[in-house]
C-alpha cells in the first residue's frame, strides 16, 4: 500500500523472521559467532538467551540457512517444546530423516538416534539438534537433552545441541536439579535490546534492504527515531511494529517524512506508553482497602455456605467501592 509512495520494493518491517532482513548488532554477531564456533568445533551444548523480541529466532534462521548450504551438517529444528519425552525423541528422529514410527518404543528411538549420530560422527560429519523456545522445556525434557549430550567419543562430542530461549531458560539451568546439564554447557551468549544509535542504524538498514536507499533525506526524522527507541525500548520486534504502522499512517496522511507526532500516535494505539511495572510497584491506591473488604466478604460468604448458616462478620454490611479517577460514578 505504501511501498510505491515511499519508493520501496518490499515491506521493510515485516515481523516474519526473514534472514535476508537480518541486521546484526555487536551482540548478535557475538551470539552467531559463539553458535557457529561451538557447532563447527563440536563443543557440545551451546545456549543463547534474550528477552522477547530481541531477534533470537531470526538469528537462528540465519544459522539454519548456513547449515543448508553445507553438505557436512545435518540438523533437526524443534520450535514447539510442549512435548512428552517420547514425542520429543520421535520428533527429533523424524526431523533428522529417520523412519520414526509413532508406535516405536522410547528405547528403539534412542537406539536409532544413537546409531545415526555415531555413524555420522565416524565420518567426520556434524549433527545438530536446535531447540527454539527452550525456556518452555520441562525439567523432564531438559534431563533427556542432558542424556543425549552423552553421545560422544573419547575426544569428540557427536551431537551438538543448541538451546535458544528467553531468560527463564537461565533460571531453569541454574536450578539444583539441572546442575549436571549446566556443567555441560560449553558456550553461552545473551542478546540485549538495541541502544538509540543501533536503533537508528537498524531502521536505516531495513529501509535500505527494502530499496529505500534513493532518498536524499531520512524517511524517519531524528525526533521520530528517538521516540521509536523510547517506546520500543530497543526491542527489534517492537521497532518493526512501530515503523510498519508509522509508514501506514504516513501514507494515509501523505507525509513524505515520518515525524515524532506519528510515532506518538502509534505508541498510543498499541498502548506502548503504559507502565504496568509502576502499577505493580505502587499498588492500586485507595482501592486496596475496598478490595480487601470484598475479599473478606466472599471468604465469609464461602464459610457461611459451608456451615449452612449465617455469620457475624461484615456480610450484612454494604461494601462501598470508590470509582477510579477515570471511571464514571455509578
General description of the model:
The protein is of the alpha/beta class and 330 residues long. It has three domains: 26-191, Rossmann fold (3-Layer(aba) Sandwich); 196-269, Helicase, Ruva Protein, domain 3 (Orthogonal Bundle), CATH 1.10.8; 284-316. Helices cover 47% and strands 10% of the residues. The chain has 13 helices and five strands. It has helices at residues 26-40, 56-68, 85-95, 106-122, 139-148, 168-173, 179-182, 196-209, 222-232, 236-252, 260-269, 276-282, 287-307; strands at 45-50, 73-78, 126-131, 159-165, 185-191. Strands 2-3-4-1-5 form a five-stranded parallel sheet, sandwiched between helices. α8 crosses α9 (222-232), α9 (222-232) runs parallel beside α11 and α10 (236-252) crosses α11. The chain is elongated and about 65 Å long. It starts with 25 loop residues before the first helix and ends in a 23-residue tail after the last helix.
Amino acid at each position: 500500500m505504501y511501498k510505491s509512495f515511499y519508493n520501496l520494493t518490499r515491506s521493510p518491517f515485516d515481523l516474519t523472521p526473514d534472514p535476508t532482513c537480518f541486521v546484526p548488532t555487536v551482540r548478535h554477531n557475538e551470539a552467531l559467532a559463539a553458535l557457529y564456533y561451538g557447532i563447527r568445533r563440536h563443543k557440545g551444548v551451546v545456549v543463547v538467551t534474550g528477552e522477547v523480541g530481541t531477534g533470537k529466532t531470526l538469528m537462528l534462521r540465519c544459522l539454519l540457512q548456513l547449515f543448508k548450504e553445507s553438505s557436512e551438517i545435518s540438523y533437526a529444528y524443534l520450535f514447539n517444546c510442549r512435548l512428552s519425552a517420547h514425542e520429543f525423541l520421535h520428533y527429533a528422529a523424524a526431523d533428522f530423516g529417520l523412519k520414526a514410527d509413532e508406535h516405536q518404543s522410547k528405547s528403539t528411538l534412542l537406539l536409532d538416534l544413537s546409531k545415526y549420530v555415531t555413524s555420522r560422527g565416524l565420518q567426520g560429519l556434524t549433527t545438530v539438534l536446535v531447540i527454539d523456545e527452550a525456556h518452555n522445556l520441562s525439567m523432564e525434557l531438559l534431563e533427556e537433552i542432558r542424556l543425549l549430550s552423552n553421545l560422544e567419543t573419547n575426544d569428540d562430542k557427536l551431537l551438538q545441541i543448541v538451546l535458544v530461549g528467553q531468560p527463564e531458560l537461565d533460571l531453569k539451568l541454574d536450578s539444583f536439579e539441572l546442575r549436571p546439564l549446566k556443567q555441560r554447557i560449553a558456550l553461552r551468549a545473551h542478546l540485549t535490546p538495541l541502544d538509540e544509535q543501533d536503533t537508528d542504524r537498524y531502521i536505516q538498514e531495513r529501509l535500505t534492504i527494502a530499496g529505500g536507499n534513493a532518498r536524499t533525506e531520512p524517511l524517519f526524522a531524528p525526533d521520530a527515531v528517538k521516540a521509536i527507541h523510547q517506546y520500543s525500548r530497543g526491542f527489534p520486534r517492537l521497532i518493526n511494529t512501530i515503523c510498519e504502522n508509522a509508514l501506514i499512517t504516513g501514507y494515509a496522511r501523505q507525509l513524505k517524512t515520518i515525524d515524532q507526532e506519528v510515532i506518538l500516535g502509534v505508541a498510543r494505539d498499541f498502548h506502548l506508553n503504559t507502565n504496568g511495572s509502576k502499577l505493580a510497584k505502587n499498588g492500586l491506591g485507595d482501592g486496596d482497602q475496598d478490595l480487601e473488604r470484598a475479599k473478606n466478604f466472599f471468604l465469609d460468604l464461602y464459610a457461611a455456605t459451608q456451615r449452612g448458616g449465617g455469620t457475624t462478620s461484615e456480610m450484612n454490611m454494604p461494601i462501598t467501592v470508590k470509582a477510579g479517577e477515570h471511571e464514571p460514578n455509578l
